[in-house]
Amino acid sequence: MAYDDFKSRIREGWQSTLQDILARARTLGSQAVLAFDLDSTLFDNRPRQARILREFGTARGLTPLGACVASHWSSGWDMRTAMRNCGMAPEQVEAVYEEARVFWLQRFFTSEYCVDDVAIEGAAAFTHAVVGTGAQLAYVTGRHEGMREGTVEAMRRCGLALPGEGVTHLIMKPSMRDSDDAFKREAHARLGTLGRVIAAFDNEPTHVNDYLLRFPEATVFHLATDHSGRPVQLLEAVVSIPHFWGTS
Length: 248
Hints:
The chain contains ten helices and eight strands. The chain is of the alpha/beta class. The chain has two domains: 3-44 and 118-241, Rossmann fold (3-Layer(aba) Sandwich); 46-114. Strands 5-4-1-6-7-8 form a six-stranded parallel sheet, with helices on both faces. It has a two-stranded antiparallel sheet with strand order 2-3. Strand 6, helix 10 and strand 7 form a beta-alpha-beta unit. Helix 9 runs parallel beside helix 10. It is globular and about 60 Å long.
């Protein structure tokens, strides 16, 4: 399913579902665990993507890319579309794509660049609302440990609840080489030792479905922002939401 198609799953009253989860968290207190992915769930990575493409354009003398902005990344993580949106002809894109991809890989998964991320609408306030219930908040991200410093700095700059404050956890991959899918499944087992998982939030359909299969009594939320593009159908019980604004 194309990422835009998931927006059609957003139902009237999604804000109430989030409010219900906060109410349930208040009832359970520290026994409750709410899990959040970071990229495309709490953070919008498009400014980071745009910075990398601008720097590539400047380094290679590609003037259209030197003017790249976040809105050019209109099709999820598709760099080819972003480059065309910047004004490059399709044949120009194909000529430099592989080089651009290597340039991107060397920068995207670093603390230096993730500090450019901005918060999804309402994300910061919602994380504080979760902490205010007395529940445990667990950030479960495919980012690797080498990005911890930049990740916490981005959280601080964007006003998210910080790990280490109260019962707020930041669970990261040991290394960049580890599979995101395998890591997330291992992290689910760790979450189960913290308490009762009552809600989980992720943008990636595979990870969303895994949460629901592992924690069938939890309310699992899918952020209809963007994703990797893998053709995965969301399970029926998953609740799709556009952001967190107006829910805390």
